[in-house]
Please model this.
Amino acid sequence: MCGIVGYVGKPPVVQTLLDCLGRLEYRGYDSAGIAVVNDKGIEIRKRVGKIKELVASIKQKPLDGERLGISHSRWATHGEPTEVNAHPHLDCRGELALVHNGIVENYAELKARLLGQGHRFRSQTDTEVIAHLVEEHAKRLPLAEAFRSALKELRGSYALCLIAKRDPTHLYGARAGSPLIVGLGKGEAFLASDVPAVLARTRRVIYLNEQEVVELSTSGVKLTTLNGAPITRKPSTVSWDLSAAQKEGYDHFMLKEIVEQPSAVEQTLCTRLDAAKGQIAFDRRTRTFLSRLTSQEKFVIIACGTAYHAGLVGEYMLEELAHVPVDVDLASEFRYRAPMLDRDTTVIAITQSGETADTLAGVRLAKEQGAKVLAICNVMGSSIPREADAVIYTHAGPEIAVASTKAYTSQLTVLYLLTLSLAKRRGLVTSARLRELLTTLGRLPKLIERALEVEPAIKRIARRYARARDFYYLGRRYNFPSALEGALKLKEICPRIHAEGYAAGEMKHGPISLIRKGWPVVFLATDSAVYEKVVSNIEEVRARKGECLIIASEGDRAIRRHADALITVPKTEELFSPILAAIPLQLLAYHIARLNGCDIDQPPNLAKSVTVE
Ligand code: F6R
Model:
């Protein structure tokens, strides 16, 4: 959601800004723009559509920057995606420019005041208000102070980057509720929404905290609070390199990330699991956190989208193996309920990005009510882990495609580790059984590798069903969430298709009425306690002439006669089956979307990280 890059350094500034912005394309956007400071003052260029449109316009009519500039890819919130509404936005005199990610909630009231003070607005955006507000304060104050004073008037969320004609050596930034990092290179510095933007130039980054302001020049960084009090923070070194954030020969990031799952899950497990000794080792903070859980502890899992589906799988395993009562809530609903939380409640926030606005709000609500918060997160240093009492990182590496794949299977892996570790602590599993389960857990990367071998079969099936416009996905127990996830994958990357996931047992309560000849229904029918019940559901669909695409366990011969198309995955314990079932579901969505000519990595209207409500 909105990509921001700011740069102070050396020429070619425009090229640097465009290269870095291009690495944030995955965030989803509908227009892009750039502003630089040069001998003419501030020069600006914006285009609706992809960054390549902006690049083409600059090729046609070059734009030069000396050492300072900002760029932005906008995902429209206030005002349509037009050139006027695209960022950067200017003050009245075109002497300062800024880019913004977030929402200024009190923009209408600020705008009314600024109009009264004689400011002239060009766009319908909330962002433009900030430019005029800084201009107003800068009439009386030095720029850095004017920036901070303006920030204090804003309600809502922001990551901001500001440049000014009068200060051509400094780049200003601030964050509150939207991500912003500082990248420190040799004789150059960056501000960006996310690490991949700067990785080609530096791995030294500073993660800004809430309500922090930063002033960057080629000679240093000045970090302060909103009141101007200095803050000292050492840069961290990003552990992954640029190759992790590049396609490396794959046609799409989504395919690359699907294929990366064996190593992503390996990374999630590697320092934590010792199957031979029957041990799971979390870091010290997480161990302390887990040791504080009471015997009456209940869990509330909050998350959105795919992470919510991981949470639903978590509910089955935590209740069954660790005997903890679990509720799973969509974060966007949780934050507006009156949840009954207390000191015996642990809220588990699952999130790839660590920045999802609803999940973050849920975390804050939980803390206010005295609950403990454990985050399961992929992005180091992001907001949710910083606000949680403890965090288990998934270590899946950067996930660039909008559709979440390897983050999901890594989230499931963390939930397996957590469940089995609690089951052990509570004495609910014998050492022999624990060792057996941990051995299978340790073999998951290999099993996922084998599951990936279904790709040629999936391609054939995708060709057969690519023209269908409605799909159902059905599963039960551990694979009910798999059905939801399979349908979400398909509908998000192939917007021409309507796909719904249901608990198979719910079919008779309504959805079955829609089934007609040729309607594809993807069934999760791997080996499980409810296998026979799923087979009955398959028969109900066949009786109505629906087409059954069945995902079953290897070696299940009996299922063949029920299947119009059959995909098998390695046979495993029911508990682990969702992680293997995820592979054909992801591949099926990918290949159907591909055959439909969809924009797979950046589906229309979707953003990778939903930092606004
Ligand atoms: C689906 C997808 C989204 C995210 C959701 C939560 O493929 O990517 O549904 O899962 O927006 O995002 P995070 O996990 O970053 O909180």
Residues 304-307, 351-353, 356, 359, 402-404, 488, 492, 609-610 surround fructose -6-phosphate (CB under 6 Å). The mean pLDDT is 94. Residues 486 and 585 are 5 Å apart (CA to CA).
